[in-house]
Specification:
The chain is α+β, with helices and mostly antiparallel strands. It contains 7 helices and 11 strands.
Length: about 230
């Protein structure tokens, strides 16, 4: 069953959603509603050209446990070359806008102006962050304002952070493997700081190859609520 949300701050029991995990439509993208959603394993999907906000909560959750991140031999070699710098908390606007621009021409693109504004506000309040990847340049590049840059932005990811969980929202790569570098850095940092789970939302071959696997919603909720 899919519920119609109103102005009240609530969500239905996710166990009663439809087969693809959709539990509700409508509502808004306020900080309070988004935090309530993520705290219950719910996330928004907004094909902004066609529909109202949809809210999803699959009963089988595709996740990566930080200690299970898979780093291939080729990725280890790339990381050891020192060609890229990866940092958490940098260039949030650049990351989210790049994620949007790379998908904006898709018919059901979901990262439109309303979503971007909502996650920028989450970031401003400390509930969303980014992982940015920078290519270290052999020669400084000239900028339009006359300054020179020693590195250039090449990709990353962003998501919501609540407690010990990171709820991934989108990734982008302007060069091969940039988003993989970001995800590995995120997982390694979470391992050091006690983070327990990365919510990937949907299964992809890319994420599966890096250690992603399914767990039940009930197991998932025990982890993010602990």
């Amino acid at each position: 069953m899919v519920y119609q949300l109103d102005k009240g701050l609530w969500f239905p029991d996710p166990h009663y959603g439809d087969d693809d995990g959709c539990i509700a439509v409508g509502g808004d993208l306020s900080v309070d509603r988004l935090l309530l959603a993520y705290s219950n394993g719910i996330f928004p999907w907004f094909a902004f050209r066609y529909s109202q906000i949809e809210w999803f909560c699959p009963m089988q959750r595709f996740v990566i446990f930080p200690e299970e991140i898979h780093i291939s031999h080729s990725m280890r070699s790339l990381m050891n070359k020192g060609k890229y710098r990866v940092a958490i908390g940098e260039a949030f606007d650049q990351v989210i806008n790049t994620c949007s621009e790379l998908r904006l021409q898709e018919e059901y693109a979901w990262l439109g102006p309303e979503m971007i504004k909502a996650y920028q506000e989450l970031h401003r309040q400390g509930f969303a962050t980014s992982v940015a990847v920078w290519e270290v340049l052999d020669k400084p590049a000239a900028l339009p304002d006359g300054r020179s840059a020693k590195e250039r932005f090449v990709g990353g990811l962003y998501g919501v952070t609540i407690g010990n969980a990171f709820f991934g929202e989108s990734m982008c790569s302007l060069v091969p493997n940039a988003s993989k570098l970001a995800l590995i850095h995120l997982a390694q940092t979470m391992q050091k700081k006690g983070g327990r789970i990365i919510d990937c939302q949907f299964e992809t071959a890319h994420l599966k190859s890096m250690g992603g696997r399914f767990i039940s919603y009930d197991e998932y909720m025990k982890i993010i609520s602990s």
